[in-house]
Amino acid sequence: MIDLEPVATPGAPLARRNPVAKLAAAMVFTIVLVATLDPVAPAIAIAVELAVLPLFGVRYRVLARRAWPLLAAAGGILVTLVLFAADRSGRVFVEAGPVVVTEGVLVTALGLVLRMLAVALPGIIVFATTDPTDLADALIQNAKAPARFAIGALAAFRLVPLLEQEWRMISMARRARGVDAGRNPIAKLRLFASIAFTLLVGAIRRGTRLAVAMDARGFDAGTPRTVARRQRFTRADALLVVTAALLAAAALTTSILLGTFRPLIG
Amino acid sequence: MSGVVLRGFGWRHGGRRRWAVRGVDLRVESGERVLLLGASGAGKSTLLAALAGLLPEDSGEQEGTVEIDGLDPRKARERVGVLFQDPETQLVMARSGDDVAFGLENRGVPAEEIWPRVDEALRRVGFPYHRDRPTAALSGGEQQRLALAGTLALRPGLLLLDEPTANLDPTGATLVRRAVADALDADTTLILVEHRVAEALPLVDRVVVLEPGGGVRADGPPEAVFAAHGEALAAAGVWVPGHTVPPRHAGTPAGDVLLTADRLGLPPRLAPTDLRVRTGEALAVLGPNGAGKSTLALLLGGLTRPGTGTVTASADLAGRDARTPPHRWRAPALAGRIGSVFQDPEHQFVTATVRDELALGPRRTGRSEAETTATVDALLERLRLDRLAGANPYTLSGGEARRLSVATALATAPRLLICDEPTFGQDRRTWRELVDLLAELRDAGHGVVTVTHDADFVAALADRTLTLHRPADPGGVDP
Amino acid sequence: MNHTDSNRWRTVDIVVASVIAVAFGVVFWAWGLLWSATDAAFAFFPPAQAVLYGVWLIPAVLAGLIIRKPGAALYCETVAAIVSALLGSQWAGIVILQGLMQGIGAELAFAAFRYRSFKLPVAVLAGALTGLGAAIFDFVYWNKAYDLTSYRIPYALITIVSATVVAGFGAWVLTRALANTGVLDRFPAGRDRALV
Ligand SMILES: Nc1ncnc2c1ncn2[C@@H]1O[C@H](COP(=O)(O)OP(=O)(O)OP(=O)(O)O)[C@@H](O)[C@H]1O
Ligand SMILES: Nc1ncnc2c1ncn2[C@@H]1O[C@H](COP(=O)(O)OP(=O)(O)OP(=O)(O)O)[C@@H](O)[C@H]1O
Ligand SMILES: [Mg+2]
Ligand SMILES: [Mg+2]
């Protein structure tokens, strides 16, 4: 089940910040981190992220639930590196055919896994604390995004929970009409593909009708739009972005000073 | 405040040979309240779309002219508010209040005026929740009211309503009609499409009947039109008040039990329910919006797994699968034994043409090609879908789609037929045809279960009724 | 005013492109789980996992073929990435950058033909270029630590092949199939069907 509601406690000091500010802060923070492959900078970043979590009103349990696929991805990184690492220097721990585990491999793996977590967490935090409507409003009002596109995307986003219901209805309709796959795996695959296709058709049809309904209420009439919900980009929002940049730079500087820094390019 | 002039208006949808409407000359003065009638497929919805300026130039061919206050409707959208039959596709935003505000923002209403106008519109339609209520959490009737509020907030000079109460329970329908009556200013022009004339008459002072082939068949004050043309209109499919239909109750007592539901439920959608369905009996399931009727229909139809309790089919119905409950049967076996008609006709469709749609069931249940063709042709003719045999089911008018979805289930002649709202949006002629088809099926010893809000239908066909009540609703106030 | 020839987006263009993006955003989200789940299965030759890659690139080509307006491919791929991030992708904000890169690839292909031709070869080219965009991003960002010849290069090549076949050819086939259902009647891609 996909849940779309933001999961943060609404009153939390940073969750209330302007969505564009949160998004920019997360972007700045992660882009700085992306520059390195070492384990130290991301480790510091993760510590920072976990420390500010309560300020966003996200509970650790909620974060863990959203972040569990990351652990699977971490396993994948490890397996891949064991087989294909570029840097196989250092002490050799295991060597069996293509499987080579060395100190270098493990350090790289640690770096990559930590980097993945450090880069993914800000995104998860921002999206877990941001209402899509507020995001669209802020994008239009504070980031000068074209209103027609932001609102169109927002209206389409409302269909996500409906898609899930629709999937169930389509499956039921097929069953009621005598179409099923039984135990044959190929038939199953075909039925799956046909349901997915029908879902896409239904979604586009809904989109077409939605567009008509939006036009009926003057969406594209050329009149300049007004905004009912004001989003403000205050000094506190700017401060959030600047702080994020400073924290990321600090993490990077620490890594450089400790001599662990390994630039991504070069 | 807005007047409408149509001169020789016609529209042909892209992909169709026939004109949906043609040769319509009509003049509606500012402040008039018009009921637009006509058989299913006569082009009522198309005409409303034209008035709302919502027929895109690139999607069909136009003849003649339409003018709203002397303007092309595509340029006069500011003056027109329209409410379609299906509220779900009209809601744009995630929160109820934002949705009402959407139209106001588009029209550039100053920000400080928006929220007072939103609140006023919500109050006028009797919307029971705060404006932060998520639109996804509204029942059909509530969505309809919210969509109406979104339209009224724009203060349109011309209000167009397309079957605004189809699918609502009688209380909800009364509420929406009252909301419309209360919300109309003295100078708002109203054009209303509604098959059930008797309920709509208090709202209007003029009746216009569209002729399916083209043109306007009758026009004038309701009493005058019905006095002059009542007989002919009723024969052509219009629900003329006072023209009742003869009932078709079972001549013989009900036979053996086909299906037994024992404490059957699916929390929180349906509270545990006991039920027996017998051969040769038409059972009607009634109840307010959200009572769980459609859920019950899906459970009885073997389409969803019960949350509580059991569904047991008799040996006669279950055949080889006597020991398993219907929801575990293979689909072809199920389709041959229990037929289901979904509430939303479009949920029923799985193929690309009307003909394939009808042929699918018989083919899947192992009928010969000749037999299939014969069944399909008979149904096409009887439900007047023959000229649409090659059309895509999703391009049908509301009533046509409903007929087709019922016909797909009739095509396999299942022992037990379960229909969810089979008669909504039907003109009188098809309505009678549907009642006759279901009655024939029952008289031939099949079981028929219908979920319905249609009191006429219950009076005409049902041998027994079961009324469901809303399970306790923790989420909000039930209006 | 003939909308179909102009480059201005109509409301249907915007909403349908968004709907495609949203539908695929959900697919991406599910696909991300599948990707992680098949990590172990592809361990024997992880670059082969890139065959799954093409699915991530379909919306770019599909939107380009259906909407036929400048920016459609880029917009759709980016919004799809944003949606999957909103739903909670393990790659979070980074997918948005990836979406941009991938979208630009397809966009360039359609732009090269001045948004006039939407035939199979153009679709395949768009698929290949969006694959190229994706491959470059991954080459630099995700795969930096892996061996060049045994991993990074095969991975990039497989990504491009997968994109060409699945996203390029696949999206073209999908567009035709969608046109046959009649849902694309409001778009040039859906015209010319038989009358009934
Ligand atoms: N989008 C469409 N594409 C092609 N044909 C259409 C489309 N919409 C409606 N039609 C056809 O146009 C004719 C008139 O349809 P319309 O929906 O206006 O009828 P209606 O009078 O509202 O009928 P009902 O009472 O059943 O709703 C029908 O034959 C229908 O099949
Ligand atoms: N897929 C679903 N998931 C959760 N709740 C649902 C779902 N479908 C329906 N419901 C809820 O279950 C209750 C029963 O729904 P159902 O559709 O069975 O009502 P109904 O009696 O058929 O109403 P109506 O007369 O409006 O068709 C409603 O409150 C509805 O909001
Ligand atoms: Mg209609
Ligand atoms: Mg129902």
Can you walk me through this structure?
Chain B: GO terms for molecular function: ATP binding; ATP hydrolysis activity; ATPase-coupled transmembrane transporter activity. Chain B: Pfam families: ABC_tran. Chain B: This is Energy-coupling factor transport system ATP-binding protein. Chain B: It comes from Micromonospora humi. The complex is a heterotrimer of chains A (266), B (479) and C (196). Chain A is mainly alpha-helical and 266 residues long. Chain A has nine helices and two strands. Chain A has two domains: 1-130 and 232-266, no CATH class; 143-230, no CATH class. Chain A has a two-stranded antiparallel ribbon with strand order 1-2. The longest helix of chain A has 32 residues, at 185-216. With 479 residues, chain B is an alpha/beta fold. In chain B, the strands form four sheets. In chain B, strands 5-6-7-3-8-9 form a six-stranded mixed β-sheet, with helices on both faces. Chain B has a five-stranded parallel β-sheet with strand order 14-15-16-12-17, with helices on both faces. Chain C has six helices and no strands. Chain C has helices at residues 11-38, 58-67, 72-87, 94-112, 120-140, 148-181. In chain C, α1 (11-38) packs antiparallel against α2 (58-67), α2 packs parallel to α6 (148-181) and α4 runs antiparallel to α5. Classes of the chains: A mainly alpha (266), B alpha/beta (479), C mainly alpha (196). At the A-B interface, α6, α7 and α8 of A face β5, α2, α3, α10 and α11 of B. Bound molecules: adenosine-5'-triphosphate (2 copies) and magnesium ion (MG) (2 copies).
